[in-house]
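Morning F.,

Quick status update on the modeling queue. The single chain you submitted on Monday has been processed. Sequence for confirmation:
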Amino acid sequence: MKLETLEKDHYYHIYNRGIDGCNIFNSDENKRYFLELTGKYLDNKIKISAYCLLDNHFHFLIQINAETKEATQAFSNLFNAYSKAFNKQNNRTGSLFEKHFKRKKIDSEAYFKTVFCYIHRNPKNNWQHYKFSSYSFYHLEKTPKYFNLDKNYSLDLFSNLNNLKYVHNQYKIEDLQGSENLAGQNNNNHKSHNLQGLKDLVSFKPNNIIKDKFFKYIHQLQDTITSKLEEVDGKAKFQEDVWERPEGGGGRTRVIENGAVFEKGGVNISGVHGKLPDSMQKYFGVEDADFFACGLSLVLHPTNPMVPTVHANWRYFEMYDKEGNIVDQWFGGGQDLTPYYLFEDDAKHFHQTCKTACNKHNPEFYPKYKSRCDEYFYNAHRNEGRGLGGLFFDYCKATDEMSMQNWYDFVTEVGDSFLEAYIPIVEKRKHLEYTKPQRDWQEIRRGRYVEFNLVHDKGTLFGLKTNGRIESILMSLPPHVQWVYDHQPEAGSAEEKLIKVLQNPVDWV
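Structure tokens below.
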């Protein structure tokens, strides 16, 4: 039988039993020692979501957190160390476990839920309080003594602890599809991976490896960016607001106001899911679809008109059929600069940083996505760009040349480049003096910013049409704006110079 390769970031059901069905644990102390060795050899290489130790077999539900060779060797070290100690204690020789521990890749959410419940329901009697199963650590909200139990993924998948308990109580061992009863009989029908009759009891919350990684990434990126911005401002701190969306999901909004540098700004993350609204189904040309969308979006409006406004967004989207299978997925995002006074060095620095990030993945990306940015961030009703552009990409889907992992690497590269692109500009301009007329000009140009966001911006429209949180969606709007009737800058002025550039995109690098 060909063994599954343990691939990094993927989930697996790992199990085995004693050779010829013999006991591998003769006492509670044996089981405790096995768990102690598990922590010693697997910690930092494997994330454990569930486990159960029975007298003659064991089960693990794990995620590989290391390269294939290192992960495989870690399991080998665990089993060899335990076998050696067990044999010495019991005055026996030879193999203890059946040759080659079994492993099956978890290829769907339903399969994960099935194996998760199956492992915990394996003990025949009093499974809720069985000492050598991970269920009690979910039920009692404790942590195992010997290693870290990765509970976040499972609780997220089942929506909450109460739902997790409820599904376990409804579960029956015979509902398992595609795993092996190590106490004796096999059931190898690896087709549906479903908890029969329980589909509607589990809150739908789509999940996969790319989604998990990106969702984790934007949480970390939000922390990195807000910490640096607070340092640069030196006065104001971000106010955090955690919110939930009634239809599914939620987010973490962070807003900074009335600082020494930033008059208003926000760095927000969200992850929302559920039924795709009718208006969006028509937009995508689908029927009866579910979705998941997550991303980080930021806008910063400095007080000083010599410091440019900046916007950035990095997002991931999935769409599902009635069975919960992914039918479409893509990345999108970018970053762009909106100055009120033109400093060509700033424009060149911002674009060079964008180009450098792009070139690490494909030299064609920068000119392609720079051009799309100029086209997208354009107020057609004003015949001018919103700013000096940057990058804009959307519907980045898997192709023969670019896998979803490749797109993940590219998008996170751009996200990681944001502070490098923007902060040096802020530091250079934040102490420049300015006049009241220059401040008025800034507020008039902010009006153009508002017009674009409310008339053209897809992200704003998507948030409004999916019942997103209004305060977070409209966070991008500046606090002080002017609309002056038929305002025209003076001929030959710095203000007119900016307008001319906005009407004709420039290749800055």
